[in-house]
């Protein structure tokens, strides 16, 4: 299988390096990832901006743009081979609940929505994980399982690992997305004349007591697999309710 491997932490990050090794044991891998860390970029593209693509070695490229830029450049320009699947990660830091709306890891995977196999995004709930060897090998196994999903239903697989060795993992749970509280207040950095400088931290505190969610699964030492439908359209069964609101005469 031909896999386009990307991430949002940058092409030199430990997570993508270990996943590249694991996937290469069975598949042909094309690694195209940002030159620098691009966390929080979601599915943004560098519209009408110049993007530099640098060949690092055979089938490995670094891109000056966003994670989504990497995916689309790989699919539409850089790679001549047909790509069967996009795999994104392993992200250093969890992508749980509403994180998916900000996540460059998930944003890069979305570009694979019309390929032969459903795209998959991997994350680990640690910024300096100690168990990447195991997590990468388990991720490669999950990639093979993902190929059995129907590819015509607008699906995306979001996988989160606790940073634990194999012996401490309790298993795998299929989960729904958890919920976060309100976003954290931006951190004030400094003022300079009429300008004020801020920095954003996390997108909101993970709320407690969320049974059957990705958040709860990670807390209970399970691997979380969330099957997402990125169509984002309201259910057909709910449309009559909304028609009454917008077309009430």
Q: Write out the CATH superfamily name.
A: Survival protein SurE-like phosphatase/nucleotidase
The run of helices and strands is EHEEEHEHEHEEEEHEH
What does the radius of gyration come to? 19 Å
User: What is the tally of helical segments?
Assistant: 6
User: What percent of the residues sit in helical stretches (DSSP H or I)?
Assistant: 10-25%
In short:
The chain has about 250 residues and is α/β, with parallel strands linked by helices. The protein contains six helices and eleven strands.
Explain this structure.
This protein has 249 residues and is α/β, with parallel strands linked by helices. It has one domain (2-180, 208-246): 3-Layer(aba) Sandwich (Stationary-phase Survival Protein Sure Homolog, Chain: A), CATH 3.40.1210.10. It is built from six helices and eleven strands. It has helices at 14-24, 67-78, 104-110, 132-146, 214-219, 239-246, and strands at residues 2-6, 28-34, 53-57, 60-63, 85-92, 120-124, 155-161, 171-174, 187-192, 195-199, 222-229. The strands form two sheets. A nine-stranded mixed beta sheet has the order 3-4-2-1-5-6-7-11-8, with helices on both faces. The chain has a two-stranded antiparallel sheet with strand order 9-10.
Secondary structure layout plus pairing:
Layout: E1 2-6, H1 14-24, E2 28-34, E3 53-57, E4 60-63, H2 67-78, E5 85-92, H3 104-110, E6 120-124, H4 132-146, E7 155-161, E8 171-174, E9 187-192, E10 195-199, H5 214-219, E11 222-229, H6 239-246
Parallel strand pairs: 1-2, 1-5, 2-4, 5-6, 6-7, 8-11
Antiparallel strand pairs: 3-4, 7-11, 9-10
